[in-house]
Amino acid sequence: MSVDASISPGELSEMLKQAKKVVALTGAGLSTSAGIPDFRGPKGLYVSRRYDPQKVFEISWFRRDPSYFYEFAWDFATMASEITPTFSHEFLCTLSGKGILCGIVTQNIDLLHQEAGSERVIELHGSFGSATCLKCGQRFFNLTYRWWLDLMGKSPDKPVARCGCKGVLKPDIVFFGEAVYRYDEAEELIRECDLLLVLGSSLNVTPASLLPYVTNAPTIIINRGSIGLGTASHRHLVNADLDDYLKEVAHSMEIAR
Fold first, then answer.
1. 10-residue stretch averages of pLDDT, the chain, 257 residues long
2. Which entry of 89, 125, 236, 251 is annotated as an active-site residue?
3. pTM for this entry
4. Beta carbons of 193 and 102 less than 8 angstroms apart
5. Structural domain of 151
6. Is 251 one of the annotated active-site residues of the chain?
């Protein structure tokens, strides 16, 4: 999809003021400025090979030997525990508080939307916010990265989080070989919107990449680089720094966090 520079921050601010049901679809680009690397980016997991993606995120490997995933999880939780939401996360929360934004659909697993204060967040790929014991089936909710680090730190050799029954805990994130969460709910939310914001996503990963196709509402994609989305008269790509662009939108709307 080519760059369309016709949507200025001022124009988007007017669209936001007039819309009744705004929905945001967010991807890794929303969090990279917070310090969380895009797994598929130039320094990401799938390029650097610091970890073997197959062994880390394949559900069959996790059931066979969860230590590969938990080596990654230890580093991720250590990093994420010290990271705070970006302006973009906070701006979306502000829009929600003003009744402008009716929901967020995210591909991210980092919990930054919730930390910023957003409440209706559909996590397609899950997150570290909850977990399930693979042995006894006990569920754990409202989890923090500190909780994970404390539990992993109790492992005698490798940082594997375990339930009280000694079963392995699986965080409720989507592994390769598993279906995404709440897709039907996300599809319905986007189908009913009258303005869709796609923020920090290249739309190259299915099934999230299919969601913009369910609406004919004006769709504003703000992202650095090319987009895996077909052109259409109601779709506009803004190739810009997300935080900088949304700060200008917020200024035009005369709203602040």
1. 66 96 96 78 52 87 94 91 95 96 97 96 97 98 96 84 96 95 98 97 93 97 89 93 96 80
2. 125
3. 0.91
4. yes
5. 37-82+126-173
6. no
